[in-house]
C-alpha cells in the first residue's frame, strides 16, 4: 500500500536567483550540497532528509514557515554562528516568551526565525 505515513518527506523552497541561493544555503547555512539537478535545482542533505531549492518566479511569496530544523540543545550555538555570519533574525512578540540574541525562549523551548535572501521564513527550534 502507498501510505504516506511510511514515506520520507523533504522540504522544498523557491529561489529567484539560484547563485545567491547557493551561496546562502551552502556558505551561510553550511549545508552540504548533495546533488544539483536539472534547471539548477539544488538538493541539500539535512540530517536524514533533504532540502530542495528550486528556481521560481514565486520565490518569497509564502508568509509562513517554509523549513524547520529540530536543533535540540545546539539551537543557541547555531543561532550564534548564523548571527556571526550576518544573518538577521525575526522577532515575534509572544506571551510568556523572552527574546535575546535572536532566540525566543518559552520556558526552555527555544525558537529562532530568519529569512533566506528571497524572504522564505526558516525556523530553528530546540525540539
Short summary:
It is built from 2 helices and 9 strands; from the N terminus they run E-H-E-E-E-E-H-E-E-E-E. The chain has 127 residues and is of the alpha+beta class.
Report on the structure:
By secondary structure, the chain is α+β, with helices and mostly antiparallel strands. The chain has a single domain, classed as 2,3-Dihydroxybiphenyl 1,2-Dioxygenase, domain 1. Helix content is 17%, strand content 37%. The protein is built from 2 helices and 9 strands. The protein has helices spanning 18-28, 75-84; strands at residues 11-15, 32-36, 42-46, 49-55, 65-70, 98-100, 103-106, 109-115, 121-125. The strands form 2 sheets. A 5-stranded mixed beta sheet has the order 5-9-8-7-6, with helices on one face. A hairpin with a 5-residue loop joins β8 and β9 (121-125). It is globular and about 45 Å long.
Distance between the termini: 31 Å
Q: In order across it, which strands form the biggest sheet?
A: 5-9-8-7-6
Poorly predicted tracts of residues: none
Mean pLDDT: 94
- Tell the overall outline: globular
| Percent of residues in helices | 10-25%
Blueprint of the fold:
Elements: E1 11-15, H1 18-28, E2 32-36, E3 42-46, E4 49-55, E5 65-70, H2 75-84, E6 98-100, E7 103-106, E8 109-115, E9 121-125
